[in-house]
Amino acid sequence: MTNRIAALGVSFLLLILPVPGSTAGPAPGTLVMVVGDNPDNLNPYLHSLAASSAVYRYTFDSLYTVTTTGEWIPALAVGYTVSPDGLTWTFRLRPGVRWSDGAPFTAADVKFTWQLAANKDVHITYATGFDRIASIDTPDPLTVAYHLKEPYAPFRDQVMGAAIVPQHVLGALSGDQINRAPFNQKPVGTGPFTVSEFVTDDHVTLTANSQYWGKRAKLARIVVRIVPDQNAQVNLLRAGELSVLNVPVVRLDEVKRMPTVEIKRYLEATYALVQLDEYGFLREAAVRRALDFATPKASIIRNVMKGQAEPAASDMVPNGPWADKTLHPRPYDPAQARRLLRDSGFTPGPGGVLSRGGKRLEVPLWTLSGRVNFVQAMQVLAQSWRSIGVYTETHAVSAAALFGQNGPQWDGKDAALIFTWGQGVFPENKINWHSSFIPKDATAPGENDERYSNPEMDRLLEEADRAVDEARRHAIYNRIQELEYRDVPVIFLYWLVDNTAVAKTVQGYDVTTFTTTPPEEWSIR
Amino acid sequence: MSSYVAKRAVQACALLLFVSLVGYAIMSLAPGGPLAVYLHNPQVTPEKIDLLRHQLGLDRPWYLRYAAWLGGLVRGHWGYSYYTGRPVLEMIAERLPATFTLMLSAFILALVLSFPLGVLAATHKYSWGDNLLSLGAFFVWAMPTFWFGLMLQMTLAVRWHLLPVAGIHDLDNNSARDLLRHLAMPALVLGIGSIASWSRYLRSGMLEVLSQDYVRTAYAKGLPARRVVRRHVLRNSLLPIVTIMGLDLHVLFSGAVITESIFGWPGMGRLFLAALNNRDYPLQMAGLMVSAALLIVGNLLADLAYAVLDPRIRYQ
Amino acid sequence: MNGLIATQAAPFARRSGHGLWAMAWRRFRRHRMALGGIGVLAVIAGSAVTAPLITSSDPTTLDPDHSLAPPSREHPLGTDDLGRDELTRVVYGGRISLLVGLTAMLLGSAIGVVMGSAAGYMGGWIDTAIMRFVDLMLSFPAIFLLLILINWTGGRAPVAMMIAYLGLFGWTGLARIVRAEYLTLRAREFVEEARAMGAGVRRIIFRHILPNAMAPILVQAAFAVAGAILAEAALDFLGFGLPPDIPTWGNLLTQAEDYITTNPILAVAPGIVITLTVVAVFFIGDALRDALDVRAR
User: Fold this and answer.
1) Which of A67, A434, B118, C63 is the most buried (most CB within 10 A)?
2) Burial B59-93 (b: 16+ CB within 10 A, else e)
């Protein structure tokens, strides 16, 4: 029996081992990348995961699009005019554009996109700015006029750059049918690639769109593989099965030593922060400022992020046009922090823990489990806060528990949450700092979870929305950043630096804070 | 026999109903909710979240939602995933081929390897070979799955290029050989625990039988050792291991999360974990029901196997 | 985690009391691997208990500027991702991991014995109710209940909660085994005698039958310790384990995952300790089964 099994085993091994001379790696003309989650929905207005936008960005276009240097260039539109009162934006559309199924693209699609974003029966997740539109005129198939309810400075960033979806596919469907349409898995777009296969939790294949209005893509296919484990992703790259990968910090040195890839380093428009939930002592700006002084940001950037992060002083990306260059992060100065707390009336008690009025200064730290860098930063932060007399416990939990309605933000006690915020390159930040966005109760939504409230800030944010004049808008956002710095509604930890490994066989691929080079220009040898 | 199966089926339905009620209650009352993902998304406005809550029916009490869900289930509607908007049944169905392929490969691998190892260890009790086998079995059982999986991947796939790193198929290659190549590492990682534990159970089961009088009688009659082991000992040592196999079927099915994540295998485990993490209630419940049903089927198969193996056991 | 359930060992009827344990010890001693296992466990548990004598570093104090240092005289196993001495973490980690393993086992065994003996001895509707409850518990994939309940407590009293989870979910296998033992034992003569002499139900269950069912319980308990240690490590990997600054072997292993290629010792050290502990416990469990089984020789 043993012999027979051994024979079986040997023949099995012979069967599965590679044929000599055969090589691993993608087929010619195919670029392979990877995402960690299964894309939940490929309709740009219905998705909730970054993995989804990583896929649908190849299949849809917007009226205007951003280049790698942050400039707006025409895409589905060829030009636009704004009325003197700032209320009417008129776009001339590109003629001869076709959807990937062959139907012509017209002004009706642009209007339908607004109607979709405003449809109360659809599970819309993205509609910022669309609520400012009063009506849309389409005098002819290639002209679109947006009429706004009030002057709205972020219109360009929010609406002009939003994906246009096809009316001829979705227009006749009810809201519920749109929620469940096959379109959500196999969308029809105007972009350079089109989804030809979607095997959930395995891969999405995008093939070059023969109907594309621009230059026909040089690549035959882009394959987006779905592999959750980060180390397995790096292993894929090392085995030559990937063309492009955003390398996690911990394995960067190892990937840098690979002769077959080149690393593109760039700042991501996403910052890490410590949200300070203002309930008790954290309502006092002096306490928040003290915690900021006691936060060793440089050490976190150096030791936790291994230098793959940049200091953050506000919520405007430092290499973008909106950052206030005069602001610098508070230095790490525990002595100053202790002094601030002592001046606020705190006195050390048992174990050196500060207290006032019989109440201990307790600020528990929370972060997402599974995010190695956050968990490490949390521990560094906790040790530092404890050293100035703050009583700090650490917790790492899942996103659903951290942000859910019964999570730590709702127990009415001071808490500090570490996570990242994908602010993007645009300045609009009203939902973060305006007091009207403070959630009313645990079941009510609201993005101002830190409960920051300042009348001057509220006024500035409202003005910024209306300030169509660029210079004035800059001045307002500079003042907003000064208030962020002075009041410390959150502690800005760092801006993420991404390191994208690109196989040397890939040409024409580059990536910056703003975006990548156009995918139709990528090629592979 | 058939009336026995019918009786078990009725019991199973009652159990499933109860599991669904308890599961739904725990799930709904636990902190966090399906909308947490949106709360952390800069693009989603508060009004949208409120609207979504209403659209998904999350503003109703859980028992009403449970009743609606159960009513749908009875009529064959498993509901739609909160996140993809797709029918839950379809999402589960498309996972089944990959899930069962991995599960059955691990099962067969464990079967093929654990039997000779177990018999060998039992027939050479306390020899160095037995001790070595025991040590090996305990060692792999004690090795954390993710550690073993990543180690295999680093050596076999990255260093030596013998096998593909992850996934179920190479691009443009749907051959059976390609599937086997992708299956080899995850099946081994998933099955290794069963190989170790089944061979231990077989060993101890056989040791017990070997000391029985009828075995000694068989030896005394001068039957060759191989024949005694195969005809008398092995057959009678199978009962306990069959129970374990019935239970392991369920473990291989729902416990494959780590293996699936490391090897990018598009199985049920990842779907279920994502549903749990996102609080995708309809999908979560469907996963729970499928997994509970599989446990019941596994136990039933084990009980039926008893009757085949041991003629003294009869079911009415 | 694979649920290892011990096969049923035969009950040993009351025999001339002297020498029962002596005989068991004689048989146990024949298992060289188990003796080795006891030695290994003694060393690991001993160093966990006397941790401050072994290392002078603190297991939780960070030194981020000296993270991921290679082994040196000062740090025999190097330092971890935040500059803590790895040897210190491993030694102190034993305290939590062994504490979790042992107490989760005790809790699970206590529940399992009570439930199993009640079901097996009382029979009837009590038996039906308990066994259907066991079916119910088994129907939930462990991950379903664990992930939800762990979120429920939101990280408060983490070590006690972890013990509670592992104990509360770890008793079903034992309950089945104990029930089977009681089903056969309750009809034995010595039980009949005890009943005839007017012993109460509780006395019969715990004083008369329980000692005779000890063999499978002990074996199962050994496996439960190992299972709890491994389950804790798996939960750490999935991000639902103990807070990262509490040193446990599972946490150490999970944190080392990213450094497998650069600082392999960080993963190897806790990996070896977990494996050694579990293997030692298994060998002891195996030897216990042989030693307490009167028929085997």
Assistant:
1) B118
2) eeebeebbeebeeebeeeebbbbbbbbbbbeebbe
The CA-CA-CA angle for residues A33, A36, A40, to 5°, reads 100
Q: Is the pLDDT of residue A298 over 80?
A: yes
Taking only the tens place, the pLDDT of each residue in A8-38 is 777 777 777 766 545 555 667 899 999 998 9
Q: Is residue C91 part of a domain?
A: yes
Q: Is residue C60 part of a domain?
A: no
Range of the domain at C205: 20-54+81-291
DSSP state at residue A362: B
Q: What secondary structure letter does DSSP report for A216? A: P
Tens-digit pLDDT profile for residues C53-98: 888 888 888 998 988 888 998 899 999 989 999 999 999 999 999 9
CB–CB of B201 and C226 under 8 A? no
Contact C113, C210 (CB under 8 A): yes
| pLDDT tens readout for residues A99-126 | 999 999 999 999 999 999 988 888 887 7
Looking at chain C, which residue has its C-alpha nearest residue B136?
A: C279
Could you tell me if residue C8 is inside a domain?
no
In A, which residues are within 8 Å of C257 by CB distance?
A: 231
Predicted local confidence at residue C294, as pLDDT: 53
**What structural domains and CATH numbers belong to chain B?**
2-74 (no CATH), 90-309 (1.10.3720.10)
Best to test chain C binding among B11, B147, B159 (most C CBs inside 10 Å): B147
- ipTM for the predicted complex comes to 0.81
C105 domain-assigned: yes
Which chains form contacts with chain C, at 3 or more CB pairs under 8 Å?
Answer: A, B
pTM for the whole structure: 0.84
Give the CATH number, domain containing residue C148.
1.10.3720.10
Quote the number of domains for chain C. Answer: 1
Q: What are phi and psi of B96, to 5 degrees?
A: -60, -45
Q: Is A434 helix (H, G, I), strand (E, B) or coil?
A: coil
Which residue type, as a one-letter code, is found at position B185? M
Whole-number Cα distances in Å, C142 to B248, B254, B284, C136: 13, 9, 14, 12
